[in-house]
Amino acid sequence: MRIIRRWWLKKGSQFIWGLVALAIAFAFYQTQGALINEVLYGASSIFRYDISVEQERLYGDRLVQQLENEINQLQIQNRQLREIVDYKNQNPNNIVTTRIIGRSPDSWWQIVTIDAGANQGIEENNPVMAIGGLVGRITQVTPNTSRVLLISDYNSRVGATLNRTGYQGFIKGQSTQTGIMEFYEKVTDVEEGDLITTSNLSTLFPPDIPIGKVVSLNINRSPAPEAEIEFTAPVDFLNWVMVVTN
């Protein structure tokens, strides 16, 4: 007994704390840490605050931002439609106003689908315009839809004229908001800002439709200079377009 008492006096506290540690470990194992989580949750309660007010504020801010974005979008569409209506009133006989209903991210600069087709008098190779100028031509027609090859497509070729001087060439797409105009002959009078329109020699497009303006010139290009043309129509962002029917 004396030995046990000496051992207890010397090791008793360690033994008790060991049992406590084993009990805690066993409880942690059995509850997968839930007990400790509850203890920590209770201990942290004095540092927590009611986040419902903050959540309501954030929700309100996001709702206001969403409504502002929708209003801005409606204002943009309203302005575009007014411009289209004004243009159509000036050219009432052969313009079909139609909406973009399909545009794939993989072919963003190549093809769009519109919600008008043969039933509306649209045919293949009809020119397609937007506010600002030419955007492409019809390549496929169904009764109520059509596909449009954009002028920004690599495969697109549009006969073009330098409006100020009459120099002739063609514009090829680059899958961007700019195209490259290759002149048919050596030109000497090309300036930044010059307006480019469809050519009177084109077999696909009526003459004098705006295409873009010169933003840069490569004089040393052989056999003839090339000009970079920024399209005046917003090819990168189209909602409504106009088809010029025969």
CATH topology grouping of the largest domain? Thrombin, subunit H
Coarse structural class: alpha+beta
Total beta strand runs: 12
Oligomeric assembly:
single chain
Separation of the first and last Cα atoms:
117 Å
Helix content, binned percent? 25-40%
Give me the CATH architecture of the largest domain, please: Beta Barrel
CATH class of the largest domain: Mainly Beta
Strand order of the largest sheet: 1-2-5-4-3-12
Strand content: 25-35%
Protein topology:
Elements: H1 2-31, H2 34-43, H3 52-90, E1 95-102, E2 111-114, E3 127-130, E4 133-141, E5 146-150, E6 157-162, E7 168-173, E8 178-183, E9 195-198, E10 210-218, E11 226-231, E12 240-244
Antiparallel strand pairs: 1-2, 1-12, 2-5, 3-4, 3-12, 4-5, 6-7, 6-9, 7-8, 8-11, 9-10, 10-11
Explain this structure to me?
The protein contains 3 helices and 12 strands. The model has no long low-confidence stretch (mean pLDDT 79). The chain is of the alpha+beta class and 246 residues long. It has a 6-stranded antiparallel barrel with strand order 1-2-5-4-3-12. It folds into 2 domains: 2-47, no CATH class; 95-246, Rod shape-determining protein MreC, domain 1 (Thrombin, subunit H). It is elongated, with a radius of gyration of 36 Å.
